[in-house]
Specification:
The chain is mainly alpha-helical and 460 residues long. The chain has one domain. 85% of the residues lie in helices and 0% in strands. Helix 12 runs antiparallel to helix 17.
Length: 460
């Protein structure tokens, strides 16, 4: 099969330029995407009040669980498509695309039915009380049925990017987020719909984004297309998608458990205002982490393609370049959290008590931020080359092995400050695990490169 210009770029273009060709649109897209929740929090904080913003934070674990199934499909399919294109196998890439489409539909039908039936008991178990429950319920009753548009938009956006259309993928996110920024104040203030208005604007915006991205995959000039013959269950393909997508899926499930425990501990040691303060910190942290995730999304097709094509030197160059950039990004997040927390928090509220608590939260929670980018890049590398088990271990180490125990133990000694400190403590611990994996990773790449230079060697 004759290579396209996009495929030749993966093999020959200078690595740092190629990374930014793919990473910059992905970063912009991820940052703009994070505005969905941030915009909702800003308008709710100023227009409805602290309790409404706390209700949105209580709803957050449910939203994480819903997105986890979309991430399972989107991440798994994107990695497999990158590897298939590196092997010059477009037919397999299109079969993956068709199976991903079916999986998204099936998963969303199941998760919508379960959550709508058991919504109030779930929210109560997740930390809602008589004040926050009505807000969380009103928001999710609209968001849950509309989640299929969210899943389709983001999953196929990932697959658009890895198949060689990073700028077009960025435009998709711009379209949806731009609509949300415009519609949210209209529904909240203009139509007086409060938190339900925020949910409606989000669903409408994601539907518009979904229509744009799905149109790409039925056009004749797309590198890979969504074809009717491929929209059928192929169990080997499904297993391949799930095996890779399992890492980010389990990470999201673990994040749900952490969010539930975090909300419970916040309510216990600081009350509803502490939950609102955490929501402000999460908005700030999300922006920084989304930049690193965008960088990883830019690296993923380059690493996956070249690993599939056995160009291991370019794999190594891409990985180490991304590692340096990610560390710089999260170090900027650390400096911002240390020196500009008042400015960040004041964007969400004018309540002096909430403002004071949010500033303290931001300063404590960002203490170990420089380590986060390092962890994310190492875990993403193993996902990109199809080594799901190592990616899963790395992804879960922070959440399960370190963060959950820290959330139980530290508040017993330091109260609310112990809840804030659990994040940085677990970041330092999981960074040590990532260093061990990095040593193993480097040795493995060196062996592969040696085998590439000496084909008769015994290295696998």
């Amino acid at each position: 099969m004759i290579a396209t210009d996009r495929e030749r770029a993966f093999e020959t273009k200078k690595v740092n330029r190629l990374v930014w060709d793919y990473a910059l649109p992905a970063i912009v897209g991820m940052v703009v995407n994070s505005l969905y929740n941030i915009v909702d929090r800003v308008f709710l904080g100023h227009g409805v009040g602290t309790i409404a913003m706390s209700g949105l934070v209580i709803a957050f674990p449910v939203m994480i669980l819903m997105s986890s199934l979309g991430l399972l499909v989107g991440s798994g399919a994107s990695s497999r498509i990158s590897l298939a294109l590196g092997q010059k196998n477009r037919e397999r890439a299109e079969l993956i695309l068709g199976n991903a489409f079916l999986l998204i539909i099936v998963f969303n039908i199941l998760i919508t039915a379960v959550f709508l039936v058991f919504l109030e008991p779930v929210l109560t178990a997740f930390g809602a009380n008589e004040h926050t429950l009505p807000y969380a319920r009103d928001y999710l009753q609209i968001i849950i049925p509309g989640n299929i548009f969210v899943s389709m938009c983001f999953c196929f956006n990932n697959m658009m990017r890895v198949s060689g259309y990073p700028k077009k993928a960025m435009y998709t996110i711009f379209i949806g987020a731009g609509c949300n920024v415009i519609l949210t104040p209209v529904f909240i203030f203009g139509l007086g719909m409060g938190i339900r208005g925020a949910a409606i604007s989000t669903v409408i915006s994601m539907f518009i984004g979904m229509m744009f991205v799905m149109r790409h995959f039925v056009q004749s000039d797309s590198l890979i297309r969504l074809k009717k013959k491929n929209i059928r269950f192929h169990w080997a393909i499904i297993a391949a998608i799930v095996s890779i997508g399992l890492s980010p899926f389990l990470m999201q499930v673990a994040a749900t458990l952490v969010a539930v425990l975090m909300n419970t501990q916040l309510m216990r040691f600081g009350g509803e205002v502490a939950v609102g303060a955490f929501g402000i910190y999460i908005s700030m942290a999300m922006l920084i982490v989304m930049v690193v995730i965008g960088l990883n999304q830019g690296m993923q097709p380059i690493i996956g393609y070249n690993y599939g094509a056995q160009n291991y030197d370019r794999v190594k160059q891409t990985f180490y370049y991304g590692l340096k950039v990610a560390t710089v990004i999260t170090s900027v997040g650390f400096l911002t959290g240390m020196f500009l927390p008042q400015m960040l928090a004041s964007a969400f509220t004018t309540d002096p008590y909430l403002l004071e608590m949010a500033v303290r939260n931001i300063r404590i929670a960002t203490l170990a931020f420089p380590f986060i980018g390092f962890q994310i890049v190492v875990a993403n590398y193993f996902q990109s080359i199809g080594q799901a088990q190592k990616s899963i271990i790395l992804s879960l180490s922070r959440q399960i092995l370190f963060l959950i125990p820290a959330l139980w133990i530290l508040p017993r000694f330091w109260g609310l400050d112990g809840v804030w400190a659990a994040g940085p403590v677990s970041d330092v611990a999981s960074a040590v695990v990532s260093v061990c994996f990095l040593v193993h990773l480097t040795r493995g790449l060196n062996r592969l490169m040696e085998g590439e230079r000496n084909p008769t060697s015994n290295y696998e």
